[in-house]
Each structure stands twice: as structure tokens, then as C-alpha cells.
Amino acid sequence: MAIDKTSKVYVAGHRGLVGSAIVRRLQKEGFENLVLKTHKELDLTRQAAVEEFFQQEKPAYVIVAAAKVGGIHANNTYPADFIGINLQIQCNVIDAAYKSGVQKLLFLGSSCIYPKFAPQPITEEALLTGPLEPTNEWYAIAKIAGIKMCQAYRLQYKWDAISGMPTNLYGPHDNFHPENSHVLPALIRRFHEAKVTGAKEVVVWGTGSPLREFLHVDDLADAVLFLLENYSDGSHVNMGSGVEVTIKELAEMVKDVVGFEGELKWDASKPDGTPRKLMDNSKLAGLGWKAKISLKDGLAGTYKWYVENYTS
Ligand SMILES: NC(=O)C1=CN([C@@H]2O[C@H](COP(=O)(O)OP(=O)(O)OC[C@H]3O[C@@H](n4cnc5c(N)ncnc54)[C@H](OP(=O)(O)O)[C@@H]3O)[C@@H](O)[C@H]2O)C=CC1
Ligand SMILES: C[C@H]1O[C@H](OP(=O)(O)OP(=O)(O)OC[C@H]2O[C@@H](n3cnc4c(=O)[nH]c(N)nc43)[C@H](O)[C@@H]2O)[C@@H](O)[C@@H](O)C1=O
Questions:
Q1: Which of 45, 69, 91, 107 has most ligand 1 atoms within 8 Å of CB, for mutation?
Q2: Per residue of the chain (312 residues), what is the pLDDT tens digit?
Q3: Which of 49, 95, 125, 185 has the most other CB atoms within 10 Å of its CB?
Q4: pTM confidence score
């Protein structure tokens, strides 16, 4: 059911990769009553501040895109932050949203909630059927708790809380930190800097054999609005593109887009992480949604955005 465009919508984490794309999507659609607070204005780990904010603003819809987020190295290096901050943010936001009378809330998890060796493509039913990937189990446990919290509030209070599980995302406003980012923005930056400095080689982590599915964040934002308008059930929904590449293939694609002419060198001392995590997207497809942006086009657009916003 289409949401009334005058409804008050709170997008938590609106300056991040995902939150900023959701804001662009909502604004394009004509939503004019968005509530947006920076981390500095409202620290979502502070329970009293979050409760006060919700009681004052009383939004009708909430999208939880605020989280402690990072790539394989950050997840592996800061386990306390990844479990602690994420549990705090989601507990505070979900509970305060319910208590303030929010009509519907969408929580975003991640494909890393699934067991490391889940059968591929991974269906929603694979949740909690096996051990997690050790490099991101802390983050995954927090995200699983978020799904379960939405389910529990739905069961006990008949409250409309839903969860979407995005695959690896990329696009404008990504985090391009050299160590703490995800692979795609990390490689864009490393290849670009190598091209500019005339370096002969670029080091890429791991063996290159892991497979990853990538979804452009504008597609994800479209799917978020789609789920808000068309889905009301306790079980979480996979959000992917259905297209996977090896990290080696991805590195070659980034190399071409950037125009770097040197060699690739693999650093096998860095972790590969989970060998494969292609999600089964048939549930979302069955509801009537599918991704539109190809990895080739999305990569070119993201590199252009990086050059225009990070360099010069
Ligand atoms: N990026 C990806 O590949 C994937 C992301 N997701 C999920 O999507 C969601 C958004 O991720 P993404 O946009 O990539 O992450 P980003 O790091 O780009 O953005 C996260 C946002 O949350 C804000 N935030 C973090 N901590 C707090 C806090 N204590 N109080 C208030 N705001 C806070 C950040 O603000 P500030 O920067 O000022 O701290 C930032 O604006 C997350 O739930 C993530 O798990 C799921 C799958 C893949
Ligand atoms: C979205 C998802 O993101 C994280 O999981 P991940 O998929 O393993 O994420 P990643 O993007 O960091 O790495 C993907 C692959 O790429 C390889 N790789 C090569 N070179 C670089 C590199 O330079 N940087 C990074 N980060 N990885 C590199 C890297 O070794 C790995 O094999 C979760 O922790 C969790 O946060 C989560 O949910």
C-alpha cells in the first residue's frame, strides 16, 4: 500500500551510504516530512536521548540505517564495537519507536547473518542453522538480535516491524577508508591512487577466490521503499542482485574502470572471509521487486562519484 507522502519518516543514519540513498529515493518520490539527525545531534547509543527524541518527534515510519559498519578488517579488529554499538543502537531505536507509536519500522541487517557454509544460494530459512564466519560473527550476532527483536515485538505487541537483509552494497557516499572499508570502495581508492602516483602494482587482500554478490545502493533504497509499502511479516527478506563475482574478477573490473595499467599482487596473509554468500532473492522477486543497476554501470558511476568528491 502506498505510503502517504506527507507522513513523517525518520531515516536513522542518513549521512551514510545506505541512509543517504534512502533519503534521495524518498525525496525523489515526493516525501516532504523527513526527520534527519546527525550522529552529533543524536547519539543512538544513548537510550534516554533516543527516547526523548521519539517522544518529541513521533515519526510514523522509521528506517534503521544507522549502525557501526565496516569491511572484513574492521569487523575482525573491533569486535567489541561491532557487537556492542550495534546492539545498543538497534535496541534503543526499536524500543523507543514502538513506545512512541511509530506505525511501521524497517530494520536493516546484512547477509553475514547466515552460516559460513550455508547452502547456496542462501534462503531466509538458513538463519541459525550453522556456525558463523569468524571475521564478522560479532556484527552478525547483533544483526540476528535485531531481526529477532522485530519478530518479538510483532508477536507480543502486534507491531509492524520488518527486517531486510542486504547483500554487499556500494555506491555514492560509501566509506573509502584504506583499511576499514569494504572491498569495492577500498579497491577504487587503491587503484586510483596507484594510477595517479604511477605505481607499478596494487596489492589486493586474500586469494581472490571468494565470491561476493554486489547491489548498488540506489537499488537497495528502491527495495527499502518497496518493502515498506508492500511487506508486513515477521520473517526477514533477502535483498540482493543475484549477480556474484570473484574478488579477482571484481579487482579486474575496478582496474579497468579506473584505468590502472600495472599489475595485481595478492596478499594471502589477509583473510578471505566467507568463501561464498550468494543470497536467494526469490522471496523479494516473488513480491515483485528486482535490481536494475548492473555492476559494470554501478562501478563506473561510483568511480565518477569518488573522483568528483574525494579527490582534487
Ligand atoms: N555497506 C554495506 O555493504 C552493507 C550495509 N548494510 C547495513 O546497512 C546499514 C547502513 O550501512 P552503511 O550505510 O553502509 O553504513 P555507513 O557507515 O555508511 O553509515 C552508517 C550511519 O550510521 C550513523 N551512526 C553510527 N553510529 C551512530 C550512533 N551511535 N548514533 C547515530 N548515528 C550513528 C553514522 O554516522 P557517523 O558516520 O557520523 O558515525 C552513519 O551515518 C547498516 O545497518 C548495515 O549493517 C547491510 C549489508 C551491507
Ligand atoms: C557486507 C559485509 O562485509 C564484510 O564481509 P565481507 O563480504 O568479507 O567484506 P569485505 O568487503 O571487507 O571483503 C570482501 C572480500 O574482499 C577481499 N578484499 C580484497 N582486497 C580488499 C580490500 O582492500 N579491502 C577489503 N575490505 N576487502 C578486500 C576480502 O579479503 C574479502 O575476501 C562483513 O565483515 C560484514 O560487514 C558484512 O556484512
A1: 69
A2: 899 999 999 999 999 999 999 999 999 999 999 999 999 999 999 999 999 999 999 999 999 999 999 999 999 999 999 999 999 999 999 999 999 999 999 999 999 999 999 999 999 999 999 999 999 999 999 999 999 999 999 999 999 999 999 999 999 999 999 999 999 999 999 999 999 999 999 999 999 999 999 999 999 999 999 999 999 999 999 999 999 999 999 999 999 999 999 999 999 999 999 999 999 999 999 999 999 999 999 999 999 999 999 876
A3: 185
A4: 0.98
Catalytic residue among 10, 139, 170, 306: 139
Give bridge partners of residue 14 from the DSSP assignment: none
What interface predicted TM-score (ipTM) does this complex get?
Answer: 0.99
> Relative to the alpha carbon of 210, which ligand is closest?
2
Whether 139 is catalytic: yes
